[in-house]
Write a structure and sequence with these properties.
The protein has 574 residues and is of the alpha+beta class. Helix content is 22%, strand content 30%. The strands form five sheets. Strands 22, 23, 24, 25, 26, 27, 28 and 29 form an eight-stranded antiparallel sheet that branches. It has a six-stranded antiparallel β-barrel with strand order 1-2-3-6-5-4. It is flat and about 75 Å long. It starts with 15 loop residues before the first helix and ends with a strand.
Amino acid sequence: MAEGAAAESAVTEEQTPLHVDVAVESAPEAAAEQPAPAPAPEPVVEQPAPAPAPEAVVEQPAPAPAPEAAVEQPAPAPAPEPVVEQPAPAPAPEAAVEHPVPAPAPAVRLADAYRGIVKIEVVSCAPDYETPWQGGRYGRGTGTGFLVAPGLFMTNAHVVANAEKIDISLYADARRIPARVKFVAHDADLALLEIDDTKSFEGVPCLEFSEEMPLLEDTVRAIGYPIGGNRLSVTRGIVSRIDTIPYAHPRNIAHLALQVDAAINPGNSGGPVLKDDKVIGVAFQGLQQANSTGYVIPMPVIRHFLKDVEDGHYDGYVEMGARFLPLENKAMRRHYGIEDNGLGCLVADLVKGGACASALQVGDVVLAVNGLPVDATAMIELEGVRVRLEELAERAFAGDKVQFTLIRKGEVMQTEATMAPLPSIRVLSRRYDELPRYVVFGGLVFQPLNFNVVQEHQIPSAHVMVELDAFTRGGESAAREDLVLLTRSLPDEVNARFSDTGRGIVTKVNGVEVRGLAHLYSLLYPADGQPRPEYTVIELADAARPLVIDNAAVDAANTRIAERYNIPASSRLK
């Protein structure tokens, strides 16, 4: 749940799809095929063979003298009678066997599968981005997970984010089993946990993933351990909306999601959501301003995650690097020379160096992608559901091709883009499972610009918006590893009167443009044997004057400041 994100963590899995398919399909079928039905069909098949025998016996009495034939063949006469009587009871056993087998199977299978829906308890440590050299803040949280392969459980990334210790508890079982994160996708809020104690789950079947997207008004049920309860909770509702929404865990990344009116509360996070007896998604967040409004990660996002980790590593999503706008206004359509037929959207912006930068141009009108018509609201239809055309990139991987049919300057043409990740936009995402990076020099604290730093120091977005846009969309990320921000000044003689300069992006040190935090460190702390200038001059974007540090006094100041503020090292670069 979004509400529990601060106290929860993340997990992932390796080659799960193969294991999942085997576990999901074989377990129920084996259970259905191996009961008593196997012997039942055999007697039924064998009995038709004697059936012709009575017919031959019946034909013989007609030509032969009735009394003598009947007297001479007493032994055969009884034989056909039992044979004729047995076929009659045979259907009764068949009916008796066939009705119980299908009926109880789903109930038994689902009850067994409930044993694989586990409560997850996490001790986490959230890093401190205000004083990055210090330890973090400890907390506890709970969530839900479910068995997807032997020894592997799926849950939300936010359930296990920043986890120090993870335990899972079986349904109606007081034991706690240690678990660890195997794979985690913070951008998709999914994780896979693994355990060593697989004996506790011997004979427990995995829930089966659905191959289809649910439709509006389909009935679903969410299963989990909400509000820290120790027993399973099941809530029921309908699918009320299917849309692309921002995921609360990464903060700035949007994916497809199902909105349901089944109650999804803190602790439900990571639990399966079922339609009939198949998993159609994972519960992950709710809406505080509305009653009984929860959100579910659907199967396209889950399948992407499982496919991604097949090679043992999670790579993340690719991006089109383009922004598409609706073309519903009739005057605009006439301006771009297209018919008023409800098809076509506008390319409004492109990221320099992005996947579509060479295939599209601002002002292009996109009519179709991969052969799928694009309507005037920039939507396409996939799996019977209308989604934004960017959903094609959501289901693609690095190297996949996307074909565009478009109108450019009145001419219909075909272009192709190769999908690729866009790491620079991750600057705007919340970070987990890593220690904050920093450099301290003369009491000045430098950190890379990211969501955690901006939020912790409460930096107004207007102070960094220009530089951030140039870095994420203007192509500067190709030349820079980080945007480096001066976040605070620890008072000391060496930096007296610097507090009035505020905080800002570091642009140059001694006239050299700063390419990132590691590069900044090399400029402030030259390698042994390299001469150090008399002063270190640090320039900030939009600052009225530079910051000047006397290098003759800085070494003593660094030692003094480290002792005063309990700073164990002058930097953490990784």
